[in-house]
Amino acid sequence: MRAVILGIIACIFAAPSLAHDSNSTKAPEPDLICHTSNPAECYPRIFQPTDEFQTVHDDQELPNGLHVRLNIWTGQKEAKINVPGETDPSLEGLPVDRAVVMVDPEQQSHVPIIPKGAPEYESVGVVKGPQHGSVAFTEGLKMLKSGVVTTGQALDDALETLEDLSHDMYYGLKIAEDSEAVQALLCLMSRLGTPTTDGAVPHDQQAAAILAGALQNNPTALKEVAGVWPRLLMDFKCPSTGEPLHRTIYSSVEPSRNGDGTDAQQAAARVKSKVAVMNGLIKESSIRARFLNDGGMVSLLKVLMTPQDKTWAGAQRKAGQLVLDNFLDEEMGAVLGQWPSSSSKLSDKQCQTEEHETAEGCWDYHVARIMKSSRAGKGDWSRQLNDKLATVRNRQNKEREHEDL
């Protein structure tokens, strides 16, 4: 009797399955995404993983539990079925743990003999290393230079670690000494549409924050970067853009390259962080000369041409302060006479045209517009910049009159 009952139950549960198999002739077609009329270029809305890495499109949905990797140079995301314990050959050689390594300070066995007539000792450039070295810092640099990470979160964590440590004199110098890391950071900072995981700081903004942190109040780090600056910029092309760095690094501060039409608040934050990098770099005379020759001031002026609202106020103040501190305010260490050149101030009518709006002679117009719009007080950066520009223009006019005589 028990066997008969069990047989009846088995038949009851098997019947729907058999009915389903008999009625279905083929599996349903997956939901497709098609950007063109060519069916061959369509792909499933939900990513279909295999045992091999495949490209993940930006508008595809990723199932949970996959092995995902991202190339930070090109922005290409790939995924496959995750195999526990499997290692990615492209990451071979990168450290996987986050242990702390003890670094023993070098011991001096004798007091050095100073030769007669030797130059006076300078403390600038002597940076004492920490007692404990950070493996997370080393791991972050290697990940940045390799261009390949297993997950977007891994890159977010690495950039966050580098940003935190970049403000330290020692680690800031270590970043500056690594020309490949500086190249990678400059390329990441200059890249358009940098991919970012939800809720994380955009990667181009993080790269800028790392560079700004490394250079701020760290003359030894700036000296290291200046030593390789021609090689960094002359011929090197970023893999993600194919353009030489000397074309993209300064234009990276332009609002149009930071998504000003989509999320103005985030675009302004990106621009502000990149202006901070420019401010740190041009403290060095040779880099400052290249900045002026390669159109850096034009890109900077475009920051002042953004809409007059609170969203862009911080970025505009950063740009205006850069000009004051480096070119017009001698008390802040500016070298006078390098900018503006002898070109004359243009009329307001000329500066309102597309042909002349970014001309050097229109700085006065855009600064005065901000000053009037914000009702700037005596200590405001826009009023100070307006007054300094007026002083320079008057001096230039007198010099031209003297030359004519």
From TrEMBL:
One of its GO terms (cellular component) is endoplasmic reticulum. Keywords: Endoplasmic reticulum, Protein transport, Signal, Translocation, Transport. Residues 1-19 form the signal peptide. GO terms for biological process: protein transport. InterPro entries: ARM-like, Sil1_fungi. GO terms for molecular function: adenyl-nucleotide exchange factor activity. Belongs to the SIL1 family. Interacts with KAR2. This is Nucleotide exchange factor SIL1. It comes from Metarhizium rileyi (strain RCEF 4871). The lineage of its organism: Eukaryota, Fungi, Dikarya, Ascomycota, Pezizomycotina.
